[in-house]
Amino acid sequence: MPVSVSSSQLIFDALKASGVRLISALPETWLVHLIRLAEDDPSVTLVRLAKEEEGVGLSAGAHFAGNRSAMLMQNHGFLAAVNGIVSCAQLYRIPLLMLISLRGEFGEKDPWQTEGGLVTEDVLKALKIPAVRLERQDHVADRIAKAMTLAYASNRPVAVLLCRDLMWEE
Amino acid sequence: MRRLEALQAIYPDLEQSVVVTIMGAVAAELQSLGHRPNFFYLQHAMGLASSLGLGIALSRPELRVVVLDGDGSVLMNLGGLSTMARYRPRNLVHVVFDNESLLSVGGFPTATSTGADLAGVAKASGVPRTATVERLEDFVAEFRGALAANDLTTLVAKVEAVGPAGFLTDLGLLENRFQFARCLRDWPRPG
User: Fold this and answer.
1) Are B55 and A22 in contact (CB < 8 Å)?
2) Which of A24, B14, B40, B76 has the fewest beta carbons under 10 Å from its own?
């Protein structure tokens, strides 16, 4: 499976460097290595979700308890979590770092991913969620650190978009 | 059993716990008994109170977390029961006040009114301790038993579909949120 191991490791290292100690996740192909890294690291609590919206509640609780967290999900999972993002994370001003694999862009071979790719960034914009794209490995550490800084300064959700050229090697 | 009298009966235990409630009648009734900095009322995002409680319980195992949930909210996040059970925080007691209706929006009957058994769903999802109670004395006994058992418990309390006249209180949402976070920050940590 040509999911980038080295990019996944860089992303995981950047999350840890940003102080993330709890990661909630719902698997998708591009996230398999990241989830395994989280599972294998005893200093990180991995919570495997049934649906992405639960992760918003988990992150809010972790934040109240003084723990930094991140959500790992596909863009369709982000779309499934929108009410929780609005009526928990935004209403209650939760610093919420969301890592979203951005399926459905140029190069997408799976027909079922194509519709979500068209709307994800527009939905983020409509929700006034700042988003940054990670397209190359030299984006990873710097942009994840800055995303976490903005999340905590603004007490709001921020999105880090994991793009095809970073995550997929073929 | 009325929810308000159930809350009153366990209020002394809630004083010593970290409490997360759902919106509407539960939040208003608990505040009518006396707000405390260790009480957080999730006034929207139906279904996520249990997930939020799980996030606290996993992050701070030394805290005792009580989630005060409702049938309508649990039905919106049945998968959350399986997530809770999967990680089985022993410091989490999940109370579900089941009035078989969406009382806050006019009393529309939920699926528990036609037989959905939330304690049964919790048990089948892997929650190690579950019970359904209908009488106040049974509720108090089961709740205290759950605290003493030191294991994840979902306790469904069948309550009358009655609530306060209104749901607005003078506690601001963000005031509650920041006060609660400070309370947890200052709560003594082990060691």
Assistant:
1) yes
2) B76
